[in-house]
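note to self — DONT lose this again. spent like an hour looking for the file last time. sequence + predicted structure for the chain T wanted, 178 res
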Amino acid sequence: MKIDDASKRLAGMIRDVPDFPKPGVVFKDFTPLLADPPSLALSVELMANPYRGRKIDLVIGAESRGFIFGIAIAQALSAGFVPVRKPGKLPREVHKADYELEYGSDALEIHQDAILEGQRVLLVDDLLATGGTMRASCELVAQMGAQIEGITVLIELGFLEGRKKLTAHADVHSVIRY
């Protein structure tokens, strides 16, 4: 199966949900893809494959849907996994970064001892929209002295130009691009 064919197959499983979580936003619901074992496995492989052989130490996943793919990709790459969470969810000392969303603002936190200086990390999320969540994740990782090897997402909303906010941090790989 060619990559383009695989991406098209996966894209066919994603449902548009208009006006969620607020009017004017079209939510990309990938839960049908998660419920289909071959599609889930294919998604993980297509997200992980560009980073095989790059000696990734840690996969960093953004709350909450980045956890779904992040842990699976970490396993596929024989790497560890570190969650980046919303404020107040982590029990120890944290680093914090604020960011803008397509439909508001928020913040992310990571344990201060979660990443060692010089570790090679891959950042993972389900969706790249405006780039705010991933940019904040990159800032947290850079603050800790790690080397960002790349960013991988299942879905990219290219028309929102989030990639532009990230090219200074790392290369961006997306499986499905709208």
